[in-house]
């Protein structure tokens, strides 16, 4: 058995984005492999940890949730400051959440570390019939903003969630 608390790298990753895009669901899916229709909006855990093995290196991912603070735009600056990476999340079925992405990027530029790694995550890709944002729009925006990782996920159907975190971990390993 692996020692739970041993690791070679520790990365702090934050999820930001408009309310109800599925940040808490994505984090819970990554941690427990499960999805629950009703996520508590205002009361939540601060962070989860999961250690993944990448090319023989134990990478401990500490993934932080906004715990509902984004609802009131009261995210504290320290939440951004110590993050190695941020997953900027929108809901592919609600264009307004995609339109907010530049503001979230700006928050990171303003309050985050200079070399913070950004990813653009379009969640709820299981709801294809209600899609309002095409993936190529996300890729274009990511290119414009210098974001290297753009992916669509479904916390509900477990699509690309682990993948998103593993891609982030690989990128972080490459530059740390
Ligand atoms: P947050 O406010 O960004 O943390 O979003 P939540 O995780 O609380 O999710 C908001 C709502 O979207 C909840 O009703 C979830 O069940 C639902 N949801 C989250 N992820 C998905 C997904 O991938 N697909 C679908 N269909 N619904 C989702
Ligand atoms: Mg939440």
List the helices and strands and how they pair.
Blueprint: E1 9-16, H1 23-32, E2 47-54, E3 57-64, H2 77-81, E4 85-91, H3 95-99, H4 101-111, E5 117-123, H5 135-145, E6 149-152, H6 161-174
Parallel strand pairs: 1-3, 1-4, 4-5, 5-6
Antiparallel strand pairs: 2-3
The structure holds guanosine-5'-diphosphate (GDP) and magnesium ion.
Magnesium ion binds at residues 23-24, 39, 41, 44, 65, 68.
List keywords for this structure.
methylation, cytoplasmic vesicle, alpha/beta, 6-stranded mixed beta sheet, binds magnesium ion, 176 residues
Could you describe the 3D structure shown?
This protein has 176 residues and is of the alpha/beta class. The protein has helices at residues 23-32, 77-81, 95-99, 101-111, 135-145, 161-174, and strands at residues 9-16, 47-54, 57-64, 85-91, 117-123, 149-152. The radius of gyration is 15 Å and the shape is globular. The chain has a six-stranded mixed beta sheet with strand order 2-3-1-4-5-6, with helices on both faces. It starts with 8 loop residues before the first strand and ends with a helix. A hairpin with a 2-residue loop joins strand 2 and strand 3 (57-64). It has six helices and six strands, in the order βαββαβααβαβα. Helices cover 32% and strands 24% of the residues. Bound molecules: guanosine-5'-diphosphate and magnesium ion (MG). Magnesium ion binds at residues 23-24, 39, 41, 44, 65, 68. The site of guanosine-5'-diphosphate (GDP) has 17 residues, from helix 1.
